[in-house]
Design brief:
- There is one protein chain.
- The protein is an alpha/beta fold.
- It is built from 9 helices and 7 strands; from the N terminus they run βαβαβαβαβαβααβαα.
- It has a single domain, classed as Rossmann fold (3-Layer(aba) Sandwich).
- The chain has a 7-stranded parallel sheet, with helices on both faces.
- The longest helix is centred in the middle third of the chain and has 29 residues.
- The termini are far apart.
Length: 260
Amino acid sequence: MSVNNKTVWLTGASSGIGLALARQLANQGARLILTSRREQQLEELRQSLPNSEQHQVLALDLNQPEKAKETASAALKNTPVDILINNAGVSQRSPAMETDLTVYRTLMEVDYFSVVALNQVVLADMVKRRNGHIVTVSSVAGKVGTKLRSGYSGAKFAVIGYMDCLRAEMAEHNVRCTTVLPGFVHTQIAHNALTGDGSLRGKEDQDNASGISPEQCAADIIRAIESNKAEVISGKGMSKVAPLLQRFFPGLLRKMLANR
């Protein structure tokens, strides 16, 4: 499915991969519905995009999936969405033994339940029209668990399983489903990661700093949409090959991760 002249609802649009996606999608002729918590930044982004008048802003707090679903359902009642890109997410950097249960709940709300909630906003109309594409940005961490990311990895594992089920159910309705697995991407995700008490980490880590650019990841996502890929890995180095090692050499990978 070409993104040209399509209505694309994009979450996490104000920074990182989402910001790069917004710019590339607009440059390729998509009409955007831009979502994040930060309405002012979204509005500034909208005005900076080509054909700014055809894009719209829909600010939502995805830590409250039920409320986000209600607000979005009302706002988009008369707006058929061709492509939903669930890109918003929050990460974590804390040992499992030192992570509050509230942090695990926040990670599940944003990284898993918000995806389910927003999909439910658009799926019925996509099924009715027999046309649509659900794209969810998970993570290589949804295939391979590593230290300090137990809550993040758990939520990303969950969303991959959900998307696999959804893809099977939607096949007869001609609604396509793509799961994206970024490896390390040089964004603010490590800065904004939650620590064990729920505070922000506030600093970079070397893995993400040496990762691919958000622009490269965005381009990989758009190519995956256009070629109707079921699942795509976007990354380089170990973060790209780790899922293959997990599949074919799991024992070796477990030893490597334990020694990191």
